[in-house]
Amino acid sequence: MLSYLHAFHAGNFADVQKHAALALTLAMMQTKKTPIACFDTHAGSAVYDLTGERARKTAEADAGVQRLWRVKSSLKSPDWQPMLSTLASFNRNADELTTYPGSPAWLADFAREGDVVTAFELHPAEGQQLDTWARRAGVRVLHQDGLKGLLQKLPPHQPRLLTLIDPSYEIKSDYEDVAATLIKAWKKCRHGVYLVWYPILTSGLQQRLITALESGEVRKVLRSEVMLDHPPERGMVGSGMLMINPPWGFEQRFSAMMDELQGNEALGLSSSLTWLVPE
Q1: Could you give the CA distance from residue 255 to residue 243 in angstroms, rounded to a whole number?
Q2: Is 166 considered catalytic here?
Q3: Residue 88, Cβ neighbours under 10 Å: how many?
Q4: Largest CA-CA distance found in the chain, in angstroms, rounded
Q5: Mind listing the domains of the chain with CATH numbers?
Q6: For residue 35, how many C-alpha atoms fall within 13 Å in the half-sphere facing its CB?
Q7: Any bridge partners for residue 201, and if so which?
Q8: Could you tell me which of 125, 172, 130, 127 has the C-alpha nearest to residue 145?
Q9: What are phi and psi of 210, to 5 degrees?
């Protein structure tokens, strides 16, 4: 099934959490000069028009990145700055965001000489747009299943690894497939940093992923969850991130960032950060 299009959801509260984690991880990893192999298993079309028909149909960015942008001057953690700088680089008008970078665009924007970004995408239309963008951005695109493709590419030639795994989970088996892939990937490259996004649903399906990883086959798994203060009766009520092998000090710094999203003056979220599996 390839019906999911992220253009309807780009810049929502889940993207804020996900890309805050990604930007902080990249900034912390890049304090060392050694090259990083970056993989995005479900890349999408890379760049999204927040004024377009799809984005405006749901208007999810209005309660997500647009609210973050409006309160940016009051954010106290300096770790927001790399994320805000990337958003600014995609938007010439500082008053309002009209463009939102997807995950491969974040990776490409941070990439240094020697870093390599590989993006996987199966959706034909998304893949075509991704190809057009990637030729300018210097990103390698592979039109294949990202979970299987990742395992084929590990371990990378570069000395360090950062992987983002964020499927749509429109297929229920994705939860088990992500867990199984992560376990295999970790065994192939135990020093790699892996970021896994998942939706928090009223159905509780996300527990399939959590339960599979609670076995302890993968070590050092940090879990971040943000919950909507006013959730819908059905569907997605929160957003979760699993960070495997996060950089030293990440826990405290990311917690400070997520705490600033709480309450109606920010994004109207509540936040928690715990170790799913300790070191």
Answers
A1: 13
A2: yes
A3: 14
A4: 48
A5: 6-277 (3.40.50.150)
A6: 10
A7: 236
A8: 127
A9: -60, -45
Q: Supply the pLDDT for residue 2.
A: 59
Burial classification of residue 197, based on how many CB atoms lie within 10 Å of its CB (0-12 exposed, 13-18 middle, 19 or more buried):
buried
Does the global pTM surpass 0.85?
A: yes
Size of the chain in residues? 279
C-alpha–C-alpha distance, residues 223 and 244, integer Å: 9
Q: Of all helices (H) and strands (E), which one includes residue 89?
A: helix 81-89
Alpha-carbon span 159 to 156, nearest angstrom: 7
Burial of 269 (0-12, 13-18, 19+ CB in 10 A): buried
Task: Please tell me the distance from the alpha carbon of residue 68 to that of residue 258, in angstroms, as a whole number.
Answer: 11
Q: What is the pLDDT of residues 144-192, one digit of tens each?
A: 999 999 999 999 999 999 999 999 999 999 999 999 999 999 999 999 9
- pLDDT at residue 1, as a whole number: 47
Taking a C-beta distance cutoff of 8 angstroms, is the pair 15, 100 a contact?
Answer: yes
Of residues 18, 8, 85, 103, the one with CA closest to residue 49: 8
Cα separation, 83 vs 92, whole angstroms: 15
Tokens found for residue 82? 């790399």
**Catalytic choice (166, 174, 229, 259):** 166
Q: How far apart are CA 271 and CA 59, in angstroms?
A: 23
Distance in angstroms (rounded) separating the CA atoms of residues 223 and 204: 16
How many Cα atoms sit within 13 Å of 52 on the Cβ side? Answer: 14
Whether 3 shows a pLDDT value over 90: the answer reads: no
